[in-house]
Amino acid sequence: MAWRRRHVLQLGVIACAMLLALAVGGVGSLAQAQRSLEELPQPVRLKLPPGLARYTYDKSAGDYFEEIEPLLPGGAYAQWAFYPVPVYIQGDHPQWKTFVEQAVKEWSAYIPMRVVAKEEEALYGMSIYRVPGIGDGIAGAARPEFFFAADGSLQQRVRIVIVEGQGLAEVTAVARHEIGHGLGLWGHSPNPRDLMYGGHHAEATGNRRLLRVPTITKRDLNTLKRVYEQPTLMGQVFPESYRRLFGQVREEIPAPG
Ligand SMILES: [Zn+2]
């Protein structure tokens, strides 16, 4: 029997970029913020999202909570304060959109999300775009933006980009990972078996390229559950003086219903 060598080539790390530069306030206003700290509302623990409430933390699997960045003042964690989270998916490639929707559906079992038709319906939600290459080996990126709504409540919007030119199965895998960030997993697992591992590799087997990204693991869910068990400032109403300080009041956007 003929023996044929099977080629498995590393194509390099398909990295994921988390762009965290837009946390509330920015470095420049930290000193001013310090003076206003007494005006900050206290972080509160929100009701767990329904699917996450039903999910039981699996002690044998553990978590990587220590890798998650608290993005809010006072070390509070970003969370979604209302559901379903509206998700806009760029729609000019219907088949591509379907594969992104698959990832939305998987996460919705834990934190309800709803795909909306128009970008402006997701100003308090996630927007997912298809973009040309954004850097060597980068398959996708997620960026949170925090702002105050007209009622003074702290809200967030998450923008996700998925690099074009990937196979459709990879699109679902990358979307699954980036949505994981968008839901509150603002960090990477050190374990390659987790969805939220930061350095998943693409491999070429013969002429087929494969991005080996796992589905949502118990460790991913354990970590997400711990994030949502933390007190947060999301949805809390901030005093006007504090909002003015950061200059991020968007009076034109009504509060989410
Ligand atoms: Zn990532």
**With helices defined by DSSP (H or I, 4 residues minimum), what is the helix count?**
6
Amino-to-carboxy terminus distance: 68 Å
Overall pLDDT level:
81
Give the low-confidence spans. Answer: 1-14, 21-28, 249-253
Question: Which compounds are bound in this model?
Answer: zinc ion
How many domain units? Answer: 1
Number of strands: 9
Find the CATH topology.
Collagenase (Catalytic Domain)
Helices and strands: which structural class?
A: alpha/beta
Approximate strand percentage:
15-25%
List keywords for this structure.
single chain, 257 residues, alpha/beta, Collagenase (Catalytic Domain), six-stranded mixed beta sheet, three-stranded antiparallel beta sheet, 9 strands, globular, disordered N terminus, binds zinc ion
Write the layout of secondary structure elements.
Elements: E1 8-13, E2 15-18, H1 30-35, H2 50-54, E3 85-89, H3 94-108, E4 113-116, E5 126-131, E6 138-148, E7 154-163, H4 168-182, E8 201-205, E9 208-211, H5 218-229, H6 240-246
Parallel strand pairs: 2-6, 3-4, 3-5, 5-7
Antiparallel strand pairs: 1-8, 6-7, 8-9
The chain binds zinc ion.
Structural features, described:
- By secondary structure, this protein is α/β, with parallel strands linked by helices.
- The protein has one domain (8-23, 41-245): Collagenase (Catalytic Domain).
- Helix content is 23%, strand content 21%.
- It has helices at residues 30-35, 50-54, 94-108, 168-182, 218-229, 240-246; strands at 8-13, 15-18, 85-89, 113-116, 126-131, 138-148, 154-163, 201-205, 208-211.
- α3 packs across α4.
- It is globular.
- The model is unreliable at 1-14, 21-28 and 249-253 (pLDDT under 50).
- The site of zinc ion has 6 residues, from β2 and α4.
- Zinc ion (ZN) binds at residues 16, 18, 177, 181, 188, 198.
